Every structure is written in C-alpha cells, then in structure tokens.
Amino acid sequence: MSSRPVNPDAPRADAMTKSQNLHRNDPHVIDKYQQAWPDDGNSAQSDPRPPYSAQTEDMPWKGTGRLRRRVALITGGDSGIGRAVAIAYAREGADVAISYLNDTGDATDTERLILDTGRQCLLLPGDISDPAHCRAIVAAVVEEFGRIDILVNNATHQHRFDDLDGIADKEWQRTFAFRIHGTFSLCKAAVPHMKEGASIINTAAITAGESGGALLAAATAQGAIQGFTSSLAHILSEKAIRVNCVAPGPVWPPLVPGSAAGEPASARGDGHPMRRPAPPVELASAYVMLADPMSRSVSGATIAVTCGNAMT
Fold first, then answer.
1. Where would I find the H helices in the chain?
2. Distance (Å, rounded) from C-alpha 183 to C-alpha 196?
3. The listed CATH number (3.40.50.1000, 3.30.1070.10, 3.40.50.720, 3.55.10.10) that belongs to domain 25-305
4. How many CB atoms lie within 10 A of CB 92?
5. How far apart are CA 159 and CA 103, in angstroms?
6. Of the spans 43-57, 109-123, 209-223, which averages the highest pLDDT?
7. DSSP characters for 190-225?
8. Domain boundaries along the sequence of the chain
9. pTM recorded for the entire structure
C-alpha cells in the first residue's frame, strides 16, 4: 500500500487557467485544449494539461461519502478517464487500486492526488492482455484491501487505419486482447471476491454504435464490450452484482488524440452538437453514479456521454 507523503508544492495535474472556457461551443477553445498530445498517451507531455481532477476551478467535486469504505480497481487509471474516475472515487471515500501499462510518471502523479484526499492507493503496473497478470492484480488488491467492491474496466488500445489491408493480424489481436479479453479475464478473477451490491463498470465508446471508420478494430471490440456487459449483467443478477457500461465520445484523454495521426486536433469535436470534446472530469459523474449503491436497480445499461450525439 502506498504511504508516500504528499508534496503540497508539487504541480497538480488538475491545474488549469480559466478552464470554464472549455464548456463553450467555441472551435478556437477546442483547438487550444486539443493540441500536441503525445502518441504514447503520456499526459505529462501535453500543454495545457487536461482537467483530470474532480476539483477544478469551475467544476468542484465535493464528495458526500457515496463510496465510503469501498474498494475500487480501475484499469487505465493513470491518465485520461481512468484518472478522473480514480480521483472522484477517492473524493467519495473509496480506496483505489490503479492498473496501468508502464507509465510510472502518470501513475505516481495520480497516486499523489488520491493520497491527497486521505484515501489509500495501490499501483499495479503490467499488461492486462495477459490473463495471468489479470489474476495477479486482482489477488494483489484482495491481499491489500480484503475485497473488491468496484471494478472499472477502462484500459484501451487503438490505432487508426485507412483500409483493411493496413490492419496487421497482430494489431487486430492486440486490440481484442487488451479490450475485451482483458475485460473478461478481470471480471472472471474479480467476481469471486465481490459481495452483494458490488459493481462492474466497463468502458466502450460511441464508435461501438457507429461505423467506426478508420477505427475498425477498436469499434468492433467496443461493440463486443457492450454485448459482454449486457450478458454478464444477466449472469450476475442472482449474485446482486451490477454490470454496466459507459460509452464516451468525443472525449479528450491522452490516448485518443495520440492514436489519430494526421487528424486535426479540432476534429475531435467539430462534427458533434456541442462542437467540443469532453474533458475527462465530465465523465467521472457517470462512473460514480454506476458505482453508487443507491443505483442498485441499474444493471445491463449503457450510459452514453457523447456531447449531444444520439447513440444507436
């Protein structure tokens, strides 16, 4: 369990200048906050940095204890949506375990923000496309905290390709191994350690309900996640474990712009009704609602956070 002291003078990942401008339907604002994302998804290299925290200047998140004494395991929790959800969960009273691939810098930054709330944080690096690793991180969370109350499958992998021939077999397999196979392996490992009232929250995307275009592999995997969510919700209903899905898009985590080589940054919002992408913090409320024990009648649902797009 991490117990590193928090440095109050360290730069916070949620620091932004006049972040309320992001909420206006202004293409110039979109360009400002969508520039220069690194291809590897490292949020520390972006300028300006996104509003991950649940305590931004214009969107304060004052936790009310909705997740008090709960234990959450979040994959891809070092940056993007995962980081925003991790911080929101901690502010609501949960201890958080973060699974991430290899970006120690982002992970320790997120850890510091969680410790700053007074909650505990466990960092779990490694590749969730490996079923053995999935079992290992679940075992580590159970050993540290005694149980798992909330599992958030959020880690993703995607690349754009203009034609079918451009998608290598290994790339197709990697996308499915990371997205749907990893989700399956983590659910299978975690469920025996979950009690009545526990919650599993998967992450798909708006492309699961669209053609997907150049994101053929990712869109197909995301569609599989929605089907998996619905079926697993039925299977686990007898255990009173809820299973739901959040479908974001357009959204502004590091990986998405980084995977869109050659695409103008402003295009991540121009074709949508709100004409802007959603910063990660604006998705956190959906994940908190689905994890909240008061949402015990919600299972098998897909919550669309799509900036005004109707999801089919």
1. 27-33, 80-91, 104-115, 131-145, 169-176, 182-190, 216-236, 255-258, 267-270, 281-291
2. 20
3. 3.40.50.720
4. 24
5. 19
6. 109-123
7. HGGG--TT-EEEEE--GGGGS--TT-HHHHHHHHHH
8. 25-305
9. 0.79
